[in-house]
């Protein structure tokens, strides 16, 4: 079995410190959180950025300052994966603008969906524009799959030759309004992946730990972090992103699965 790639989704776009005091919002906070997460076993930092008021942002200068702080803090050079999801309601042009900074990897959302009480819009026109931007800036996409139909959307883009293998797929399960985090759902999604795919799973809230454990045993990769789940256990907030990463590292080692370093993760994901 290949080594486990752990992604730390350190901030996200939905929460603030009123619900999660440990949430890193400033570049310095994100740099500290990233170093702690990498030291705990993460090789990818999934990055949303905030403005000076702590609000979600897609501005290039906000990505630039967070990347610079993370790179200065993390000597092992983790993969910094940009979010092109932004906050719900952000325009597609703003969402893909950060690709011009040429990160090694970024998220690629595969369909319009209910997202809690909101609608997260990703039309086929949006997805084609996104695919063109990924090609233009030579950024490797990670395809975010929230529902079974999103795999069909990926296959449509493959048929149109808008995207090329290998296909790095992340199942984001448990978002209210999308596919649940039941293990049977995960198995169904894995069975429907296109050829030449790798996969990982991000369980939202209470689904984070059970889905992560199954991914470890099934040969997939794992995403954890305060973007997805703010609790370490029922009734107890996580103290940091690193605390959530450390648990996955420990479980993986206990069942005999080694952890990929950033260098090893780059090779496994065929990153430039």
Describe this structure in words.
The chain is an alpha/beta fold and 272 residues long. The protein has a single domain (6-268), classed as TIM Barrel. It is 36% helix and 21% strand. The protein is built from nine helices and 14 strands. The chain has an eight-stranded parallel beta barrel with strand order 1-2-5-6-9-10-11-12, surrounded by seven helices. A two-stranded antiparallel sheet has the order 3-4. Strand 10 (167-173), helix 6 and strand 11 form a beta-alpha-beta unit. Helix 1 (27-40) runs parallel beside helix 8 (241-254). The mean pLDDT is 96.
Explain the layout of strands and helices.
Blueprint (H helix, E strand, L loop, with lengths): L5 E4 L17 H14 L3 E4 L1 E2 L5 E2 L2 H14 L5 E4 L9 H6 L7 E5 L3 E3 L2 E3 L3 H13 L3 E6 L3 H11 L7 E7 L9 H9 L5 E7 L4 H11 L2 E4 L6 E3 L2 E2 L3 H14 L7 H7 L4
Parallel strand pairs: 1-2, 1-12, 2-5, 5-6, 6-9, 9-10, 10-11, 11-12
Antiparallel strand pairs: 3-4, 7-8, 13-14
Helix pairs in contact: 1-2, 1-8
